[in-house]
Design goal:
Layout: E1 2-6, E2 14-18, E3 24-27, H1 35-40, H2 42-57, E4 65-66, E5 82-85, H3 89-98, E6 113-115, E7 128-130, E8 137-138, E9 141-147, H4 156-159, E10 163-174, H5 178-183, E11 194-197, E12 201-202, E13 221-224, E14 227-230, H6 242-249, E15 260-262, H7 278-289, E16 302-306, E17 319-325
Parallel strand pairs: 5-15, 7-17
Antiparallel strand pairs: 1-2, 1-12, 2-3, 3-4, 5-6, 8-10, 9-10, 9-15, 10-11, 13-14, 13-16, 16-17
Helix pairs in contact: 3-7
Length: about 325
């Protein structure tokens, strides 16, 4: 099934069920007022939401209305926890190569992960605000999962059952802010200012054979100013899969229902598939030509992130953000 949060003037939006083709929706407040409420009571809420989803797809849902993606919040407009991994090591490897730095062997054994700001996610088709172009704003197109409650020290095999929903995301990275921050040795804060999720979150079964319980085997398509930046294959070169990332995050603590966990920038060793971030393209330019050519975002630029099934239908809806100057 497909779920979304409709803008309604509150911090958490109103939970709605969205049709498979993303054209229709129906309220779900009588089942769960918000997606956070639904995920906290998943065993009870999910069967009722699924019944409504089936009725909606059959044209039999009472109160159905046209679904406008621009009126959707991120499925979880805020979350108790947002963790982002870096499971596509081809991205890490290339970016470090451009700086003349080897990737440490430890990166092959233990996933990179940071805890990001989750008090206010940007809507999937809302503007992304930054204060200055000097920050070097970039996108990072990724896949994310939402979990229910996860026990401490869970194994990757056990973690599979805790993936309840999947989304796409655009993790805005401020490339000129990050280096000085990382040099402090204490992780990201200012360098990761805005995170945007797709209009809908979907249950794993919506992906069919493209979901094997661990990763999504479909291209993730990115456009910048209507020019294709790339469509890397999300099921290829994912060195740490989602159950492994969940197990890593829960190694020393429990994860509360509604935890959002990202894959990191989708990336392939085959550079012919293009890129899910500008930084990786700039890194390849540096390696091949001695300098980066492609600029980071300017005000007025637009970024679009989508994933399509084998028949060419959009699965999660479209992330479509314009970069704007923050006015205060």
């Amino acid at each position: 099934m497909k779920l979304a949060s409709l803008k309604n003037g509150t911090r958490d939006g109103a939970l709605i069920v969205v049709s498979r083709d993303l054209t229709r929706a129906v309220p779900a407040a009588d089942i769960a007022p918000t997606l956070q409420s639904a995920i906290e009571n998943w065993n009870e809420a999910a069967p009722r939401l699924r019944a409504r989803y089936e009725a909606l797809n059959a044209g039999a849902a009472i109160g159905a209305f046209a679904f406008d993606q621009s009126k959707a919040e991120s499925p979880l407009p805020r979350a108790y926890q947002w963790l982002d991994g870096s499971s596509y090591l081809s991205h890490v490897e290339l970016v470090r190569k451009a700086r003349g730095v080897e990737m440490p062997p430890s990166f092959l054994q233990d996933p990179l992960m940071y805890q990001g700001s989750s008090d206010n996610f940007t809507g999937p088709q809302d503007p992304v605000y930054i204060a200055t172009e000097d920050w070097g704003a970039d996108l990072e197109a990724e896949i994310a999962v939402i979990t229910d409650d996860v026990a401490m020290s869970i194994t990757p095999e056990q973690a599979k059952s805790h993936v309840k929903l999947l989304m796409l995301l655009n993790d805005i990275s401020l490339r000129h802010v990050i280096p000085a921050e990382l040099n402090k040795g204490f992780g990201f804060v200012n360098g990761k200012g805005v995170t945007v999720f797709s209009p809908v979150a979907v249950t794993p079964d919506e992906l069919g054979a493209a979901w094997d319980g661990s990763k999504v085997s479909l291209p993730l398509t990115v456009h910048v100013n209507n020019e294709k930046l790339g469509a890397p294959l999300a099921g290829v070169d994912m060195y740490f899969n989602f159950p492994q990332l969940i197990a890593h995050a829960a190694k020393t603590r429990t994860l509360g229902a509604g935890t959002v966990l990202g894959s990191g920038t989708v990336s392939n060793h085959d550079r012919n598939n293009g890129f899910c971030c500008i930084s990786e393209k700039r890194a390849l330019e540096t390696v091949e030509h001695g300098k980066a050519i492609t600029p980071f975002f300017h005000f007025g630029d637009r970024v679009r992130v989508e994933m399509f099934d084998a028949q060419g239908a959009s699965i999660f809806g479209t992330i479509d953000n314009e970069i704007r100057k923050y006015q205060g």
